[in-house]
Design brief:
By secondary structure, this protein is α+β, with helices and mostly antiparallel strands. It contains 16 helices and 24 strands. The longest helix is centred in the N-terminal third of the chain and has 22 residues. It is globular, with a radius of gyration of 24 Å.
Length: 609
C-alpha cells in the first residue's frame, strides 16, 4: 500500500464564521433554539463525571464527546463567546481526568478496553471526535491562548490513541478489536476508525496509521468483513447475519460510522476499493433503506436483533408496513447526512446534496421540539410526536438521550453544507437566505425556497473575482435558469462536478446572479411491502418537503386519490409554515411543522390510503 498518496476533496468546508443565515431562516432558528435550550443549559461537568468517577455504566461516556462535537460545530456557526468559554472549561475538565499514560475511560483499568458494558472504545471514539472538532474550530482563533491550547489538545489526542493502541490489536497481551463491543460483533468498536485517521492527520505518527490499517484489515465484524460484503454488492440488511433474525447485527448507525472512517482512510491511502465500498454502501442505502423522510432503520420485519428500531430492514420498501412500530432513529438521520457529506466532499456530485437536503428538511428538523431540548428518537410518518427513547441517562436534572446529543451536530452542519468551496470556485448546495464569505468574495443571498425556486445572489467583497460559482441543480427541479445582471446566462457543466451549473466569471462588486427553477410536486405510491396492509399508500411532497395533514387545520382521515403529478394550490397560511397548500379537498403543511404541539391536538398523517 502506498501510504503517502493523499486524495484531495472536490469540495471543502468553509471556515467558522463564514456563513450567516438570515434570522427568519428555519435552520438559523433551529440552531439557536438548540444552542440556547440545550447546549447552554447542559451541565458539561456532569458529562465528565462519568469519566472522573469511573462509573462504568453502559455507553454513558459517549455524551461528553457528542455534546462537545455539537457545541464546536454550532459555535463555528454562531460565534457565541459564552459557548466557547463553556467548551474551554469542559475541555479543561476532561483533560484533568486523563491519566499520565493517556487514559480517558469510564471503566476501571482491569476491565479495559471493553468495560462500560462493552462500550469502552465507543466512548473513547466520541471523546476523540469531540476534541477533534474543538481543535478544528479553535485552529482559526488568533487569540493568545489558542496556540498553546492546540498543542495541549493535540497531545491529549495523541496520548489517548497511543494508550488505546497499547490495549487493542493482534499482538500478544492485547484484545482484538473484534472481541470488543456490546452486541454487534465489533462493528460498534471498529467505528473508532474515523477519529483514529483524523488524529493521524494531526500527528503524522506511523503507529497511528498502522492502527487504522489494522482496523480496516480486520473488517469491522467478527462474523464477516463488512467492507468486503458491501463491495461485493450485498444488501446492508444482510450483513453480519447468521440466519436468526433475533441475532441480527445490521445496526444502521454503527455500520455507517465504520464507512465514514473508511472514507477518511481512503483520503490518506488512496486505496480505490475503500472509496468504492463507501459509494456502494451509500447507493444501496439510498435505494433500499432511506425513507421519504431521509432516515432509515426499523424494528421489523427482517432484522429483530439488539437495538430495537435501529437496524436495517429494507426500510425504504417497508416504510408503510403496519408491523413496524419504531423506525428512523435520529442518530441514523445524522450519520446518514454525515456519510453523504463525506462523499459530497470527495466526489463533488449533487446527488449527495440531494440526499442531505431531504434529511435536513424532514427527519432532522421535524424531530426537534420547539424548545430545543429534545430530539425525537423515533420520528414517525403518522400519529403524534414520539417521546419513546431506547437510550438515555440523567445528567443532573436533564434526561439526555443519544439522539438529543447527536441531533445538534446535524443541525450545526447544515450552513456549512449549504455553502462550500472548491478548486473552481464557491459552491451553493442549498438555497438559504443569508450572507456567505468565500475568502474575499461575499454572496448576499435572498431566497424564496422552498416555496418557490427563485433565488437572488449579490456579489460583494470589493474586488474582482475570476473562476466559477457552482450552483446545485436539484433533482426535483425543472426549467433551471441562471441570469447574470438580468440577462439569461448559459451555464457550464464542468467535468467532475456532476449536477452543478457552473456560472463562469469574472465577477465584481454589485453583480447579481438570479436562479429560477420550477419545483416539481409529486405524489408517491408506496412500494409493495411484506405486509399487504401497507400497500397502495400515497404520500405528497413538494420538492424535498414531505407534506402532511394536521388535525389542527384539516381532516386527516379521508382518502387521497393517487395522482403522480398533482397540482398544489398554495394557501394563505404561508407565514406559519415552510410550505402550505390545498390538494384533494385538504390542507397540507410541511412535515416538520406538523405535530407541533407534541400531543393529540396536532395528530398528523403523511402516508395515507
Amino acid at each position: 500500500m502506498d501510504k503517502t498518496k493523499k486524495i484531495r476533496d472536490r469540495f471543502f468546508m468553509l471556515k467558522p464564521g463564514s456563513v450567516k443565515l438570515s434570522g427568519d431562516d428555519i435552520f438559523d432558528r433551529k440552531i439557536r433554539s438548540v444552542e440556547n435550550g440545550l447546549l447552554k443549559v447542559l451541565d458539561y461537568r456532569g458529562l465528565g463525571d462519568y469519566y472522573r468517577e469511573k462509573r462504568n455504566q453502559f455507553a454513558a461516556g459517549e455524551f461528553w464527546g457528542k455534546i462537545m462535537r455539537a457545541s464546536a460545530v454550532i459555535y463555528g456557526y454562531t460565534g457565541d463567546r459564552w459557548l466557547l468559554d463553556k467548551m474551554r472549561l469542559a475541555v479543561d475538565d476532561i483533560l484533568s481526568v486523563q491519566g499520565a499514560d493517556g487514559e480517558i475511560s469510564t471503566a476501571p483499568k482491569e476491565q479495559q478496553p471493553n468495560g462500560s458494558g462493552g462500550a469502552d472504545l465507543w466512548e473513547r471514539k466520541y471523546v476523540m471526535l469531540g476534541l477533534l472538532e474543538y481543535y478544528r474550530v479553535i485552529g482559526y482563533c488568533d487569540e493568545e491562548w489558542c496556540a498553546p491550547e492546540l498543542l495541549r489538545v493535540k497531545k491529549a489526542l495523541s496520548d489517548l490513541l497511543d494508550y488505546t493502541i497499547s490495549q487493542v490489536g493482534s499482538e500478544p497481551g492485547k484484545m482484538p478489536i473484534l472481541s470488543t463491543g456490546w452486541a454487534f460483533c465489533g462493528i460498534e468498536s471498529s467505528s473508532i476508525l474515523e477519529p483514529v485517521v483524523k488524529v493521524y492527520n494531526i500527528t503524522g505518527k506511523p503507529e497511528h496509521l498502522a492502527f487504522a490499517e489494522y482496523i480496516v484489515r480486520e473488517g469491522g465484524c467478527s462474523r464477516e468483513n463488512i467492507f468486503e460484503a458491501i463491495l461485493s454488492g450485498r444488501s446492508p440488511y444482510t450483513v453480519g447475519g447468521n440466519g436468526d433474525p433475533k441475532e441480527s447485527i445490521a445496526k444502521a448507525y454503527e455500520m455507517m460510522s465504520c464507512f465514514e472512517g473508511l472514507v477518511e482512510f481512503y483520503r490518506v491511502t488512496g486505496r480505490e476499493q475503500d472509496r468504492m465500498a463507501a459509494l456502494k454502501l451509500q447507493a444501496k442505502l439510498a435505494n433500499e433503506e432511506i425513507t421519504e423522510l431521509g432516515s432509515g432503520g426499523a424494528d421489523a420485519p427482517y432484522n429483530l436483533g439488539p437495538g430495537t428500531g435501529e437496524q436495517w430492514n429494507l426500510t425504504r420498501f417497508e416504510q408503510t408496513n403496519p408491523d413496524i412500530d419504531l423506525m428512523m432513529e435520529t442518530c441514523v438521520t445524522v450519520t446518514w447526512m454525515k456519510l453523504c457529506l463525506q462523499l459530497l466532499r470527495l466526489e463533488g456530485d449533487s446527488r449527495f446534496a440531494d440526499n442531505i437536503e431531504r434529511s435536513a428538511y424532514n427527519a432532522l428538523i421535524g424531530a426537534l421540539k420547539p424548545d430545543g431540548l429534545f430530539f425525537e428518537y423515533f420520528p414517525r410518518f403518522n400519529g403524534t410526536r414520539n417521546f419513546k427513547v431506547n437510550f438515555s441517562y440523567k445528567v443532573g436534572d436533564f434526561d439526555l438521550s443519544c439522539c438529543t446529543a447527536n441531533g445538534p451536530m446535524g443541525l450545526g452542519l447544515v450552513p456549512f453544507i449549504a455553502f462550500m468551496q472548491s478548486d473552481v470556485g464557491p459552491v451553493v448546495n442549498f438555497f438559504l437566505s443569508g450572507r456567505v464569505r468565500f475568502g474575499k468574495m461575499v454572496l448576499d443571498i435572498r431566497s424564496c425556497f422552498p416555496r418557490s425556486g427563485r433565488v437572488s445572489m449579490t456579489i460583494g467583497g470589493g474586488g474582482f473575482f475570476a473562476g466559477n460559482i457552482l450552483i446545485r441543480i436539484p433533482c426535483y427541479s425543472k426549467n433551471f435558469r441562471v441570469m447574470l445582471n438580468g440577462e439569461e446566462k448559459p451555464f457550464l457543466t464542468l467535468p467532475g462536478y456532476s449536477g452543478y451549473a457552473a456560472v463562469p466569471g469574472p465577477f465584481s462588486e454589485g453583480m447579481m446572479i438570479d436562479v429560477e427553477f420550477d419545483i416539481e410536486d409529486e405524489m408517491v405510491l408506496s412500494d409493495s411491502c411484506s405486509n399487504a396492509a401497507g400497500n397502495g399508500m400515497t404520500l405528497l411532497r413538494h420538492g424535498p418537503l414531505v407534506l402532511a395533514r394536521d388535525r389542527r387545520i384539516t381532516d386527516i382521515d379521508g382518502p387521497v386519490p393517487f395522482d403522480p403529478h398533482p397540482v398544489l394550490c398554495e394557501t394563505d397560511r404561508r407565514e406559519a409554515y415552510l410550505y402550505s397548500c390545498k390538494y384533494g379537498g385538504y390542507e397540507w403543511i410541511d412535515y416538520q411543522s406538523a405535530g407541533g404541539t407534541w400531543d393529540e391536538k396536532s395528530e398528523f398523517r403523511s402516508w395515507t390510503s
